[in-house]
Amino acid sequence: xxxxxxxxxxxxxxxxxxxxxxxxxxxxxxxxxxxxxxxxxxxxxxxxxxxxxxxxxxxxxxxxxxxxxxxxxxxxxxxxxxxxxxxxxxxxxxxxxxxxxxxxxxxxxxxxxxxxxxxxxxxxxxxxxxxxxxxxxxxxxxxxxxxxxxxxxxxxxxxxxxxxxxxxxxxxxxxxxxxxxxxxxxxxxxxxxxxxxxxxxxxxxxxxxxxxxxxxxxxxxxxxxxxxxxxxxxxxxxxxxxxxxxxxxxxxxxxxxxxxxxxxxxxxxxxxxxxxxxxxxxxxxxxxxxxxxxxxxxxxxxxxxxxxxxxxxxxxxx
Length: 318
Known about the structure:
Largest sheet: 11 strands, antiparallel
Distance between the termini: 58 Å
Number of domains: 1
Structural class: alpha+beta
Helix content: 10-25%
Shape: globular
Number of strands: 13
Radius of gyration: 21 Å
């Protein structure tokens, strides 16, 4: 059993105590995916898996990912395919456009900017017939390495402060914690910011929002009144991340996956339990930040959304 003195507890526990996006992962019984072995993809749905592109940039015109989706509700399931294709860079009045967001690194707030790209979304039904399409803008800053974040937390769990700090004031102990954890916090912070940005993207696009709300209940009127609006929180639960045995992988073409649990809270109520299956975001996998499969579960209703990557195309430099 780990000692309970603050200087000998795992640094991850102390270092992440103030990271709002992290929280304890509830123990849940995960569903069995109805997707099973990969079936024949309908004509017109590209299931080619290109070799990953080692060179930058992370997003390139022509990068394309195809996901197989299964929405399972009370025993019945509906199958769809979602295709994401990087189009041209975002330009306005002849000027390249950038997105920006603030993130706290090393105790200091920094403004990060990243180039924007147009991304086309197309939804198809189980036989490959087009159902819906839309276009979103994706910033390269969303492309973060979630595997690196999982490894960073794992490393934090192995670190403890030396006995030399025993007897120090609590403030001094916290300073020592921050200094020891600093090399790992950037990966965790950027990964969390990336997931928040991806959720915001899904929330703002009609096509993606429809998929999201199929497994998440919208807040009722009473909740809106009591909370004076909608308070949404996304928690990346790195403390529960784990390596996925290749034989259990939902995306066998990508060995060495990590399962990263994420929970969505609306007005302090658990709204969605999500398992992300992630790999290194080598292009074209950078379009989703290395997410190659997911399982989203409603916390109380019998409804689950499964998704896995079945096709990837790498764009080519002009």
